[in-house]
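fyi for ur records
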Amino acid sequence: MTRTVRPETAVDGSAAADAVAGAPAREAETLRHEIAGLRATIAARATLDMACGVVMAVGRCSLHEASGALLAAAAATDTGVEEFAGLLVEGIGGAELADPVRSALRTVLAQLPPTSAAAEAGR
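which gave:
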């Protein structure tokens, strides 16, 4: 017959009992950290989605093309795509777009293929 010894009942179990008692606190801290990361991801995703929408509206392009344009413009300005998207969204909200951001965006939009919506508008 095998007997299970719980940490809190072991002769030298005080350290083990402390470890078991500290487990909920460590788990709670891990969960708080994970939630903070998820919130940051959601906020960044929302900014990227707004920036894609702006590029889609201005460039009359698909989501795929807008995403590529954002990546290309971010690379041209040597910034991360999340940072570039944030600058673009701030610019739409009334902040002044920095010249490198404006120039990179103009360049990548000019490289987009004409779409049926753009062709219709040109008639």
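The helical segments are 14-59, 63-76, 81-92, 99-110, 116-122. thats all i got for now
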